[in-house]
Amino acid sequence: MLQFTAFFMHTQNMSADPTIELAQQLIRIDSVTPNDSGCQDILCARLEKLGFQIERLHWEGVDNFWAELGSEGPTLCFAGHTDVVPPGETGTWQRSPFSAETDADYLHGRGAADMKGSLAAMITACEHFVSGRPDFAGRLAFLVTSDEEGMAINGTRRVMQWLSENEKSFDYCIIGEPSSSEKLGDMVKTGRRGSLNALLTIRGQQGHVAYPDKAKNPVHLAAGAIQELVAQQWDTGNEFFPATSFQISNIEAGTGATNVIPNELRLMFNFRYSTETTAEELQATVNLILHRYELDFEIDWHLSGEPFLTLPGKLTDVVVEALEKTMGYAPELSTTGGTSDGRFIAPYGPQVVELGPTNETIHKVDECVSISDLINLSKTYHEIMELMLPAK
Fold first, then answer.
1. Alpha carbons within 13 A on the beta-carbon side of 16
2. What sign for the dihedral angle of Cα 33, 39, 41, 44?
3. What is the Cα gyration radius of the chain?
C-alpha cells in the first residue's frame, strides 16, 4: 500500500507540472487549422510577463506572432504552431479529443504531440531560464503560427517575409515538431527533403471498347511513360539525404462503365527530393520522358518546399550536449520524414533543427504524449538556452 501511495503521489505531481498544465490549457482549445481560437493569447500573456515584445501578425484569417527579448548578440528562436489537424469522428476516440485528460503516464488529446506539448515545454523552459538568468547575453525569440497543418501560406512563410522586410532576423531556430522516434531525443531533424507535387492529365479519345481502332486509350498510351518514371533513378542521395523518391498517389480514368474507353487519364504524383537535385531538374526530366512517348498531356506543378539542411555546427553541438545532459544519450541527426515549417525558415540563413516528442500517435485517433517526456523536453529546452545564451 505504501508503494502504491508513493507512486500515486509521484504521478499526481507529474500531472501538476507547469508544462503539463499549460499543455492541457492549449489542448482544450479546439484550434483546427487554420484557427488559433485563443491559444496564442495564452502564450503571449506568459511571454509578456517575462518582458518579451510581442508583434501580433494577422493575414487572411491566420494568427501569428513574433516575440523577442534580450540585448545584442546571437538570437535563439523557438518556433511552432497552435493549429491542429481535425480529430475526425470523435466517437472513435477513447477520450474526447479536446478534453486533455491525463492518466498515470500520458496526456491525451489532439495536438498533445503535434505540437501543443512542445509549445508548452518551450514556454515553461523560457520562464525558468529568464527568471534564473535575467541578464543573459543574446536574444530569445518566438515565432508561432496557426497555419502549419493547412495551406501554410499566411503562417511561417509570411512571417519570415515580414521579418526580412522589417530587418529582423535570428541565428538559431528550434522547431518543436515531434522529431523523436522511440524515445525522447533519440532523433533530431537537421533538415528535410523537398516536396514537389504534380497533377498530370494525359488526353486520349473516348470510344467503345469493341472498336479500339476508333479511339485512343490514354491508359495504354501512358503505360510506357509511367513505367519509365517509376524505374527512373533521379539521384543517389548523399551522406545526409536518401535518394530522391517518386510516388504515384492517385490515378483516375474512365466513366465507370466497362465498355467505354476513357477520354483522359489523371495522375497525381510526388517527389521527395534531396539536395542532389532541384525541382527544375525533376520537372525537366518528367517532361522529357512524357514527350518521348509523344503524349498529349498537361501538367500542373506545385512546390511544397525546397530541401534544407543544417550542417553540423554550433546549434547541433549545443542540442547534442543538452540531450546528453538531460537524457543521458546523444541523438541521431536525421533528415527523414515529411516537410515542416523549417523549409520557410532555413532559406533566410538561420541554423534550424527540430526537437520534440515521439511521433508515434501524431495525426491519429487517440493522439497522446508521455507526461515525463514533456517534462524532460522542457528541461532540455532550458539546457539549450543555458548553453547558447551565457550570462553577461
1. 6
2. negative
3. 24
Q: Which of 36, 63, 83, 373 is catalytic?
A: 83
Whole-number Å distance between alpha carbons of 272 and 248: 12
Q: How far is it, in rounded angstroms, from Cα 31 to Cα 26?
A: 9
The span from the CA of 70 to the CA of 136, in Å, is 7
H/E segment holding residue 333 = strand 332-334
CA angle 195, 200, 203 (to 5 degrees): 175
> β-pairing, 245-253 with 172-175?
unpaired
Q: How far apart are CA 35 and CA 1, in angstroms?
A: 47
Catalytic annotation, pick one of 36, 148, 149, 386: 148
Cα dihedral: 49, 53, 57, 62 (round 10): -30
Sign of CA dihedral 43, 48, 54, 59: positive
* pLDDT tens per residue across span 97-147: 999 999 999 999 999 999 999 999 999 999 999 999 999 999 999 999 999
pLDDT value of residue 10 = 40
Q: Which residues are CB-contacts of 114 (< 8 A; sequence separation ≥ 6)?
A: 84, 85, 177, 178, 359, 362, 363, 367
pLDDT by residue (tens digit) across 152-198? 999 999 999 999 999 999 999 999 999 999 999 999 999 999 999 99
DSSP string, 101-119: -B-SSEEESTTIIIIIHHH
Establish whether 235 is a catalytic residue.
Answer: no
Average pLDDT over residues 303-317: 94
- Decide if 202 contacts 221 (C-beta within 8 A): yes
The cell numbers describing 113, all together, are 504531440
Instruction: State the cell numbers at 212.
Output: 479500339
Q: How many CA atoms lie within 13 A of 300 on its CB side?
A: 5
Q: Which of 335, 367, 117 is nearest to 240 (CA)?
A: 335
Is-catalytic flag, 83? Answer: yes
